[in-house]
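Please check our next protein.
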Amino acid sequence: MLGARFDAVLERAQQGDASAVGELWRDANPMLLRYLRVTAGQDAEDIASVTWLRAAEAFDSFSGSEPGFRRWLVTIARNTHLDDVRRASRRREHASE
């Protein structure tokens, strides 16, 4: 956890500092992958990648604490996974001869 440094790192990330985004990623991605491996199985890394892309696009909309940031990431990941599950159920594949 970044602890007392979190606010400064988040602010830099919100201003577009790639090294700050990297710090957030190094800190929170292991937790995110653990969650996704349980909920999404083999798709965990793909969903984590999409989650970080969506989070990076929306950093400006986040305000809060480090635990809140982690919950925000998990929410994005959960929604991404559910979207994938819904999309897959709508386009079922049937084997043909």
The longest helix spans residues 66-90.
